[in-house]
Amino acid sequence: MFELKVTNRFAAAHNLREFYGRCEDLHGHNWFVEARVRAEELDKTGLVMDFGVIKKILHEVLDLLDHKYLNELEYFKTDNPSSENIAVLIFQEMAPRITEASEGRVRLHSVSAWENESSCATYADGQA
Ligand SMILES: [Zn+2]
Asked: Average pLDDT of 48-53?
């Protein structure tokens, strides 16, 4: 099994409803995002997938979030824009694009959202 990882960043504001702590009031983070894709076999050029294609897909998805007030996005009207739920959203947006771009050979394995250098939330598919 092979795995590739690409990273990118986005900046956004949020506040967490029904949370009593540092994230209760409106503030921003510079999220650092890691996306991992996996494939059982390489393609005929010896690649899991072109890094550039994965980066482009991640960039397109992060564009949906960059410089936004996350609480106002439709996706976060009910679910809090926690790093956990941000990882889920990025995963759900990326997964079909990775599948399509690789014609089903490569799958998105996980998305990690670091809200600072010591705190990271990861959402992963259920497979090993
Ligand atoms: Zn926060």
From this structure: 98
Domain chopping of the chain, boundaries: 2-124
In tens, the pLDDT along 118-127 reads 999 999 987 5
C-alpha of residue 107 to centroid of ligand 1, in Å: 29
The CA distance from 84 to 10, in Å, is 15
- pLDDT confidence of 20, banded at 50, 70, 90? confident
Under DSSP, the state recorded for 81 is: -
CA of 113 to the centre of ligand 1 (A): 12
| pTM for the structure as a whole | 0.94
Distance 24 CA to ligand 1 centre (A): 8
- List the CATH code of the domain at 2-124: 3.30.479.10
Q: How far is the CA of 28 from the centre of ligand 1 (A)?
A: 6
DSSP E strands, the chain? 2-14, 27-39, 107-116, 119-124
Query: 108 C-alpha vs ligand 1 centroid, how far in Å?
Result: 26
